[in-house]
Design brief:
Structural class: mainly beta
Largest sheet: 10 strands, antiparallel
Protein name: Phosphatase
Number of domains: 1
Shape: globular
Distance between the termini: 16 Å
Number of strands: 31
Number of helices: 8
Strand content: 25-35%
Pfam families: PhoX
InterPro entries: PhoX (IPR008557), TAT_signal (IPR006311)
Bound molecules: MU-OXO-diiron, calcium ion
Length: 595
């Protein structure tokens, strides 16, 4: 019989952990355990993980590498559900011992295909608030790899820009790449952003689009371009393969027979993720960032309204909501004189980095709103379209998420070492070579589907005891946890913001972590560190369940800067990684609950 669950998440903030320390740290009164690790069995028949016995077939049936977005969609009854996770990239140097044997390297490059993509895994628990367990071989379990079929939807699907020799219809793409953050829709599907997809291709920068998206002709870390025509941009018939990545993908974890989709209507860029809310008039709005220095903030507004019915017909309709609608990009205008934005982070005379802004249409009623570009071109070469309309160059928008009750939108701008070089400071990106990043709070002025907004900077991140100026919504800096490089954002049922970070070891010399930030009352802006992840890892996910007294995070790339022979981390088991004595870190989903 399970002990009654502890609800609520009271905690005393942990002390920041130095960047050389390899441990997972939670507040007093809490305990942690991995829910699933790289290589754990997902599909029926998957072997138990053994780091020296890896194979493409085993990996395709096991949990993938470098989990980033996670959610658990809980079934009615509360004791079962499905965990959905994505797998952003691989770290070959800590997955395998060094080798120069061409046959072995080719075999590994097939494992890299199987280790990326997404996983769906059924989970069970004994009581609400009790730790979850995975169900290997569960009925809804799935793995999506770089060879799994995805259906293209939206105006660019089937267009000339996405046709290849292997897919002359331009409607079926094999695989998903670089999946970073994500979001769960009100109709129970999971969205995931294809981010750094250019890195998997060797493509000469022969076009303005290829140059703008960072394609280059050079050997890639996975080596696919040497044996799979799809990843060689010079291969006749496959010049458009790269146009088939860089989208928001949607997976329906409740229907194991469903084909996942890629939504061209939401544009193609280095999608960090997408988070959906339902506007006042019932249309759905997806907020999205393009995570590149100096790139843009976007939103999509659906043509059709959400069907609030509970039957399968309603769900079927909602699954099409992201296929038709209009795409907008943001322009921010500050309300203080430019002379007061001196690049140091010093507040302007009016006491706030704030102003107004507008959403500029890139498509309108399904047609192009950008002179000289077709709608297909706008949706495939979205960065080029946004360049033409005067969007604001941002400090790397990562996760962008609307608050579930206030509707205010929180934008994590993770950092921008080139602010002041490629673009001058402005009131929305006010620090030169912005090392620690900031968080913007955006209020829609005309409702979620409208085109005008107000904004202000909620947090200028950093270590308040260091030299850089910081700001925490007016809360005394001396009383907050140091925080740097905000990446993912989430909310708890009490309305607090939670932020996970990626990059603090190289800035404030602390391991990355998870932080709670109240948004209302006297504690507004009081950043409190909840947990710290192991050496070299970034904190992803996160899932905050106050009602269960539980937090889950994805621990991505632990020990990334070490080697197979000399691992920097042995997270999460801190022992041998499989049947032999080889030891290596394993990216994992971790659950933290009140002891
Ligand atoms: Fe994969 Fe933008 O972080
Ligand atoms: Ca101002
Ligand atoms: Ca991220
Ligand atoms: Ca990041």
């Amino acid at each position: 019989v399970a002990a009654p669950a502890a609800t609520g998440l009271p905690f005393t903030p942990i002390a920041p952990v130095d960047a050389s320390v390899d441990s997972f740290v939670v507040p007093e009164g809490y305990t942690w355990a991995p829910l699933i690790r790289w290589g754990d069995p997902v599909l029926a028949g998957a072997p138990v993980f053994d780091i020296v016995a890896q194979s493409p077939a085993a990996q395709a049936a096991q949990f993938g590498y470098n989990n980033d977005y996670i959610d658990i969609i809980v079934d009615a009854g509360g004791l079962t559900g499905v965990l959905v996770a994505n797998h952003e990239y691989v770290n070959p140097d800590i997955m395998f011992a060094p080798s120069s044997d061409p046959a072995e390297l080719r075999r590994r490059s097939e494992i890299y295909k199987a280790a990326q993509g997404m996983s769906v895994v059924e989970v069970v628990r004994d009581a609400p608030g009790a730790p979850w367990r995975t169900v290997p071989g569960g009925r809804r379990n799935r793995r999506f790899t770089v060879d799994s079929p995805f259906a293209l939807t939206g105006p660019a699907a089937g267009s000339e820009l996405v046709r290849t020799a292997a897919d002359p219809e331009g409607r079926t793409v094999l695989g998903t790449l670089g999946n970073c953050a994500g979001g769960t829709t009100p109709w129970g599907t999971v969205l995931s952003g294809e981010e750094n997809f250019n890195g998997y291709f060797s493509s000469p920068a022969t076009t303005p689009s290829r140059a703008r998206y960072g394609f280059r002709q050079r050997p890639t870390s996975t080596g696919w371009e040497t044996w799979d025509k799809r990843f060689n941009g010079a291969e006749p018939g496959y010049e458009n393969e790269e146009h088939r990545f860089g989208y928001i993908v949607e997976v329906d974890p409740l229907d194991p027979a469903s084909t996942p989709v890629k939504h061209t209507a939401l544009g193609r860029f280095k999608h960090e993720g997408a988070n959906v809310s339902i506007a006042e008039d019932g249309r759905v709005v997806a907020y999205m960032g393009d995570d590149e220095r100096g790139d843009y903030l976007y939103k999509f507004v659906s043509k059709h309204r959400v069907n609030t019915g509970s039957g399968p017909g309603a769900r079927k309709q909602n699954l099409k909501l992201l296929s038709e609608g209009d795409l907008f990009v943001a322009r921010f205008t500050g309300d203080s004189p430019a002379s007061e934005i001196d690049g140091s982070g010093r507040l302007p005379q009016d006491g706030r980095f704030d102003g107004t802004g507008e959403w500029i249409a890139l498509t309108r009623k399904g047609e192009s709103a950008v002179p000289g570009m077709s709608v297909e071109q706008v949706l495939v070469h979205t960065r080029l379209a946004a360049d033409l309309v005067g969007a604001t160059k941002m400090d790397r928008c990562e996760d962008v998420e609307p608050h579930p009750t206030t509707g205010r939108v929180y934008i994590a701008c993770t950092n921008n070492s080139r602010r002041g070089i490629d673009a001058p400071v402005d009131e929305a990106n006010p620090r030169l070579s912005n090392r620690d990043g900031h968080v913007i709070e955006l209020v829609e002025s005309e409702g979620q589907g409208g085109t005008r907004f107000a904004w202000s900077i909620l947090l200028l991140c950093g270590d308040p005891s260091g030299a850089a100026l910081t700001y925490f919504a007016g809360f005394p800096p001396a009383m907050v946890s140091p925080i740097s490089c905000p990446d993912n954002v989430a909310f708890d049922a009490e309305g607090n913001l939670w932020i996970s970070t990626d990059g603090a070891p190289s800035t404030i010399r602390k391991n990355d972590g998870l932080f709670k930030v109240p948004l209302e009352g006297p504690d507004r802006g009081r950043v409190q560190q909840f947990l710290s992840v192991p050496r070299d890892a970034e904190t992803c996910g996160p899932i905050i369940r106050v009602e269960d007294g539980m937090v889950l995070v994805a621990v991505q790339h632990p020990g990334e800067d070490g080697s197979f022979a000399a691992p920097n981390s042995l997270f999460p088991d801190y022992g041998a990684s499989g049947a032999g004595t080889a030891r290596a870190p394993r990216p994992s989903v971790v659950q933290v609950w009140r002891a």
